[in-house]
Amino acid sequence: MIVVDHVSKHFGGIKAVNDCSITVETGSITGVIGPNGAGKTTLFNIIAGVYKPDSGKVLLDGVDVTGKKPHELFALGLLRTFQIAHEFSNMTVLENLMVVPPEQSGEHLVSSWLRWGRVQGEERRVRERAEEVLDSLRLGHLTFELAGNLSGGQKKLLELGRTMMTDAKVVLLDELGAGVNRTLLGELASDIERLNRDHGYTFCVIEHDMDLIGRLCDPVIVMAEGSVLMQGTMDEIKKNDDVIEAYLGGGVLKKKQPSATDATGAHPA
Amino acid sequence: MDLEIFGLFMYGISLLTMTGIYAVSCLGLNVQWGFTGLFNAGIAGFFAVGAYTSAILTTPEHAGHFGGFGLPVPVGMAASMITAGIIAYAVAKICLRLRSDYLAIATLGIAEILRLILKNEQWLTGGSLGISHIPRPFDGRGQPWSELGFLAVVVVIVLAIYWLIERGLKAPWGRVMRAIRENETAAEAAGKNVERYRLEAFVFGAMFMGLGGALSAHAFKFISPEAFEPLLVTFLVWVMLIIGGSGNNKGAILGAFIVWTIWSMTELFTGFLPSDWAIRASYIRVFLIGLILQLVLQFYAKGLIPEKPPVIPGKNGGEKAGGD
Ligand SMILES: Nc1ncnc2c1ncn2[C@@H]1O[C@H](COP(=O)(O)OP(=O)(O)OP(=O)(O)O)[C@@H](O)[C@H]1O
Ligand SMILES: [Mg+2]
Fold first, then answer.
1. Fewer CB within 10 A of the terminal residue: chain A, N end or C end?
2. Are residues A134 and A254 in the same domain?
3. Cβ-based contacts of A106 with chain B (< 8 Å)
């Protein structure tokens, strides 16, 4: 469970996150929506340890983790993807995934010199897992391609793939869907549901795609101008006038009917 | 005639010896820049520290400088790596959190400070008089055996370092380093303690720069602050790595060979110039090296032997890897 407790963060004069409090319950798939610049990514960066908040606290499973480094949070089971893909360009797709698993003995120079056999054995296992993940993301044919050569959408998939390389507790997904084709996105949504149901992963998902949010997330948190505007189910949110107002005219939310096909359907985006 | 061939032979030996000495430092820079993306503009500083450490420890006692302690050469070499490593650790603790362009400026400044210390702290280093009577392994066996013996020492050291670094590069250690080079934020998010790894790469690389310096001290049997001008060390080692192929250890060695050969040939060439031109020789040499760097990069943007992702054990190799 993540608790964000009255957190604020400003950049110069901009209050990116302003006295914001949210809770991501263990086992939930919590959605975060809000107009551009609402502070969603900044909030993720605070939770994941990239920024230290000006004030307020972040708790992970009851422990105060405010100001911890990203790699320390990773060790506590908190993983995240980036809105703008952060691939390792001059490394192969396979290597991009194989970086992730923690405590590989070959990460120590001395082991690479003295325990080559063991290191190689581990490499085989890590590679197997990476290849499974790549297959599930339909990236198998690009295993040996340099990650910098992937398309925008493929890079986003690689982002997700990295979080699947180790057993996480909480995964923060920042606009995973942006740039990914709808059919595949539907399948990924199923993967997310499966990881949530069978492996107990908790997800916190930023998305602009209301169908995807409606299908996956409960509850949904609406942010605007750095704070929480409201929280509820997707249906409740769609009826709320403040939310519609926040989206400037609200066309996005009002026009679309809750559709049965959701993200899998071939909507004209 | 025979004399001429013999002279050529000796020249070849000295060329290879110097290639090896530079290759050691170049491999060190490859760990820092090629693998990890740390811009060290102070190679000369670590090189000098290594040279002086080994010189002070291995020369016989002398009133002109601290020591000497008359210790065996291998002890001096080991100590040169340790001193360079300690200084790198201190530098890293202060500077590694800086962005890479600032790191370059900081290391440049530190190298200059070190050079000034070597020049001015006479009690320690003999000041501008330098340190002489530095022992060389296999010395006193007469030409060419003494030179050949030392070349053998250098070759063994280069091969050993190549093996150590190549192993690390092919292991997950190298993968993490390259990931940090490619994207620090993502490496951190993937659970890697970026600060620790960068520190490790910086110290590890600097130790070899120190060792390169020690080897050069023993090769010349004499050192003075002039030998550690940034131009002679930092600049050349960088050009070697870029021409050879940053991120590739074979490339680092090849680059050392090519650049040193050209550098030393231009010395012969400028020796034939009329005397009023000879003053200009030093910058003509640098200009030539710069020109060659340009030419090579025109045709080989990633160096002569570019970085290649290592083969990972598994079903169907990684042979398809590479390409851009
Ligand atoms: N590193 C930064 N430096 C300065 N300003 C920043 C920084 N990061 C974010 N901001 C500002 O903070 C505000 C919130 O940005 P943020 O990226 O969190 O929005 P968002 O809700 O993720 O938007 P989007 O939906 O477009 O991704 C914006 O006004 C942005 O300009
Ligand atoms: Mg964002």
1. C
2. no
3. 171-173
Nearest to B173 among A74, A102, A106 (CB): A106
The length of chain B in residues reads: 324
Residue B318 touches chain A, beta carbons under 8 Å: yes
- What would the DSSP string read from start to end of B261-289? HHHHHHHHHHHTS-HHHHTTHHHHHHHHH
Q: Which residue of B has its CA nearest to A161?
A: B190
| Residues with a CB atom less than 6 Å from ligand 1 | A 11, 14, 16, 34, 36-42, 83
Q: Would you call A107 an interface residue with chain B, using a CB distance cutoff of 8 Å?
A: yes
CB-nearest to B191 from A74, A113, A146 is A74
Nearest chain A residue (CA) to B192:
A71
Strand partners, A3: A23, A59
Cis peptide, bond prior to residue B144, ω within 30 of zero: yes
Residue A222 belongs to what H/E stretch?
strand A220-224
Burial of B275 by CB count in 10 Å (0-12 exposed, 13-18 middle, 19+ buried)? exposed
Residue A262 has what pLDDT? Answer: 44
Q: Are residues A176 and A250 in the same domain?
A: yes
**Do A79 and A94 fall within a single domain?**
no
> Do A74 and A110 sit in the same domain of this protein?
no
User: pLDDT under 50 in chain B at which residues?
Assistant: 318-324
A71 contacts B313? CB cut-off 8 A: no
User: How far is A67 from chain B, CA to nearest CA, in Å?
Assistant: 14
Asked whether residue A269 is assigned to any structural domain, the reply reads no
> Which segments of chain A have a pLDDT < 50?
250-251, 254-269
> How many Å lie between the centroid of ligand 1 and the Cα of residue A252?
21
Strands A63-64 vs A55-60: parallel, antiparallel or unpaired: antiparallel
pLDDT of residue A266: 43
**Residue type at A197?**
R
| H/E segment holding residue B238 | helix B236-244
pLDDT (0 to 100) of residue A235? 87
Residue B298, judged by CB atoms within 10 A of its CB (0-12, 13-18, 19+), counts as exposed
Report the alpha-carbon distance of residue A221 to residue A233 in Å, rounded: 9
Residues A177 and A249 both lie in one domain = yes
- Radius of gyration, alpha carbons of chain B: 20
Given an 8 Å threshold on Cβ–Cβ distance, is A104 in contact with B172? yes
Q: Which atom of ligand 1 is nearest to the CA of A34?
A: 21
What is the CATH number for A258? Answer: 3.40.50.300
